[in-house]
Amino acid sequence: MNILVTGAKGQLGTELRLRTRETENRHWIFADIIADEGIVPLDITDEAAVRRLVEENRIDLIINCAAYTNVDRAEEDEATAERLNADAVRILGSMQTRILHISTDYVFSGEGWIPCREDDPVAPRTAYGRTKLHGEEALLQVNPDAIIIRTAWLYSPYGNNFVKTMLKYGKERDKLTVVYDQVGTPTYAGDLAEAILTIVTGENWQAGIYHFTNEGVCSWYDFTIEILRQAGVQCRVEPILSSQYAYKTPRPHYSVLDKAKIRSTFSLTIPYWTDGLSRCLKAM
Ligand SMILES: NC(=O)c1ccc[n+]([C@@H]2O[C@H](COP(=O)([O-])OP(=O)(O)OC[C@H]3O[C@@H](n4cnc5c(N)ncnc54)[C@H](OP(=O)(O)O)[C@@H]3O)[C@@H](O)[C@H]2O)c1
Known about the structure:
Bound molecules: NADP nicotinamide-adenine-dinucleotide phosphate
Strand content: 15-25%
Strand order of the largest sheet: 3-2-1-4-5-6-11
Shape: globular
Number of helices: 10
Mean pLDDT: 97
CATH superfamily: NAD(P)-binding Rossmann-like Domain
Low-confidence stretches: none
CATH architecture: 3-Layer(aba) Sandwich
CATH class: Alpha Beta
């Protein structure tokens, strides 16, 4: 089986790269918009280039980790976000390969109060959420055999994310103020990568939409306290309301995802969020 991982230099792509190994019957190709050591160049919005790479390498499966992930910038340039998060996903989905694609909790309104299931009504409130939802819809239209995994609050030792930002500010400042009225579940990208590998290397491909985050629930305030505690960084953290923070883009108040479907379909045991965090900090 020949497997193409797109967006291989991103948080999730890197965690996948670190966990894969070549075997006699499994060959991996890692691609990103800009080439690097062990990474071939591929712009997923370029249909001819995608087709060429897929055909020349006889790709059987695509794992799409590439995306336009800057929520604030997407608000100002929705057209570019749409090209990457929706049009390119349609291109990848029409390659006559299997495809596993990553989506987001931002497809939901974030106004509920019980964990969101896969078939709950979607109602994105942001440009990022809209474009990611269009990606899901486009993919299922051209490739009903696709697997889509929605995740949330992703972090890793690589790229920019909340954990790295809080560690930096926590070391530089005496006090941090962090919102406590936005609740969700952090996701260590390494744990998501493990789940993806279990799915794609197993014999049990079951098309559909799934939810995956780490287990448990916390606010960004609780998350910050735990990050600093585990890292041994001394800094006072004060809880504030979202209304006290100048967000450019509305953020969901409640974005906990129900993971029962992915757990039971693929027999997964999902780590608790503080355990994922401690493994990430060790890897840093
Ligand atoms: N981060 C989160 O909190 C979060 C939450 C929920 C869901 N997700 C979803 O999880 C998935 C993985 O997220 P992530 O945080 O790992 O993303 P990421 O770190 O932003 O990685 C995305 C990668 O895609 C690359 N890329 C950009 N444009 C491309 C193009 N035209 N062709 C090919 N590659 C391109 C990026 O390169 P450049 O860096 O050079 O642009 C980057 O290496 C995404 O689908 C995202 O929507 C993320």
